[in-house]
Amino acid sequence: MTPQPTGRLFRSADGDELILTRTFRAPVEDVWASVTDPERTARWFGPWEGQGAPGRTVRVRLAFEEGEPWSEVRIDACEPPRRLVVTTQDDYGSWRLEIRLTGTDDGHTRLALVHHLTGTEGLGEVGPGWEYYLDRLVTSRDGGDLPEFEAYYPAQKAYFEGLTPLPPED
Q: Which domains does the chain have, with CATH numbers?
């Protein structure tokens, strides 16, 4: 099966935001643990070390990138179990990322990954990467076969390069 891109580009007061979503059949607290507990993040993104708290910096090993490099991640906001905002710093620059979790009445949780952009160059590489990682999150929770990056890139590159900003989400 070929994964379909889901990312959308929105215009905000601070610039553009690339937003990708997934829905989980689980309570918000359980999904929160999947994106903050180092043992659980190791399954789909990479382990992290340090003391996680707002204003602190932790180190995250990008376990599924070539060379498995470590990256510095400053925690800008942590509002369990609904919102996490971080800024990463590595050889590729600085990225501001946000996770928003919303519970639904039927027991599901909607996860929105927001990449706050300083420009749209490189979107054709960044977007497929986030699709890959979010699908890894889904399958790490469901116990399925983890996806391979080759299924996302370069197949989704044109989709993300063709995105045009939409008005802000409500």
A: 8-33+78-162 (3.30.530.20)
CA 100, CA 84: separation in Å to the nearest integer? 7
114: tokens are: 């927001």
pTM value? 0.94
Q: What are the φ and ψ backbone dihedral angles of 107, each rounded to 5 degrees? A: 85, 5
Query: What are all long-range contacts of 59-65, with beta carbons under 8 Å and residues at least 24 apart?
Result: 60/88, 64/133, 64/136, 64/149
Helix residue spans in 15-152 (DSSP H): 28-36, 38-44, 123-142
The beta strand positions in the chain, using DSSP E, are: 8-12, 15-24, 48-49, 57-61, 70-79, 83-90, 93-103, 109-116
pLDDT in tens, the chain (170 residues): 789 999 999 998 889 999 999 999 999 999 999 999 999 999 999 999 999 999 999 999 999 889 999 999 999 999 999 999 999 987 778 999 999 999 999 999 999 999 999 889 999 999 999 999 999 999 999 998 999 999 999 999 999 999 999 987 66
